[in-house]
Amino acid sequence: MTARLLRLADERHLLFLLAHHIVFDSASTAVLVRDLAACYRAERGAAPAPPPPRPVAAGPGSDQAASLAFWRREMAGAPELALPVDRPRPPVRSGEGASLTHELDAELTGALKAFAARTRVTLFMALTGAVAAVLGKLSGQEDVVLGTVLTARPARTTMSGSSSTPSRSGSIW
After folding, report:
1. pLDDT of residue 169
2. Distance CA 29, CA 70 (A)
3. Model pTM greater than 0.85?
4. Secondary structure (3-state) at 14
5. pLDDT in tens, 45-80
6. What separation, in Å, do the N-terminal and C-terminal C-alpha atoms of the chain show?
7. Cβ atoms of 4 and 15 closer than 8 Å
8. 158 contacts: CB under 8 Å, gap ≥ 6
9. How far apart (Å, rounded) are the C-alpha atoms in residues 114 and 42?
10. For 16, 78, 102, 121, which has the most beta carbons within 10 A of its beta carbon?
């Protein structure tokens, strides 16, 4: 995380915080802002000191071994994605590969937002469903396991039904 404090006047400042999206989501950003404001008020003497931080749980249950066992049970039997490749996989994963970044234009973004609203899913879930549909099409598999890092959301998302996007997005839960 990077922090910068900009002085606007003797008694007026602006704090900029920069963090990678893997570190903060909207829920954790709200907690950071709340706790930072509480500490600031306490430092100025305008409020009592905030309570110490709560211990962090590692997922379902309170210890990491139990969490790992939980997810191994949940994912047991999950199919491996078999995408067509132009060369065999190496025996050991290296992380080498290419990436592609593509910006969506305003018209397509608007259409995607309208689709998500019409089908009563978030834009994130509509796009996640689209990625899963493409992976299923490319692999020829009906079952595709796709994971994302999210907080306070259901632990499992499934897709079933016909290959049309509206019916698939309607079956995400």
Report:
1. 42
2. 27
3. no
4. strand
5. 888 888 777 665 555 545 777 877 888 888 888 888
6. 33
7. yes
8. 171, 172, 173
9. 44
10. 121
| Residue 137: pLDDT over 90 | yes
| Residue 66, H or E segment | helix 64-75
List residues bridging with 96 in a β-sheet: none
Asked if 126 contacts 119 with a C-beta cutoff of 8 angstroms, the reply is yes
Task: List, in sequence order, every residue forming a beta bridge with 12; answer none if it has no partner.
Answer: 9
What angle do helix axes 123-139 and 106-118 make, rounded to 10 degrees? Answer: 100
Query: Which residues lie across from 9 on neighbouring strands?
Result: 12
Q: Is 170 exposed, middle or buried (0-12, 13-18, 19+ CB in 10 A)?
A: middle
Residue 157 reports pLDDT greater than 70: no
How far apart, in whole angstroms, are the C-alpha atoms of residue 18 and residue 3?
Answer: 6
DSSP labels, 111-149 = HHHHHHHHTT--HHHHHHHHHHHHHHHHHT-S-------
Cα gap 23→1, rounded to integer Å: 9
Which amino acid does the sequence have at 77?
A: G
Residue 151 to residue 24: CA distance in whole angstroms: 11
Which two three-digit tokens encode residue 115? 């689709």
Structure tokens at 51: 């309570």
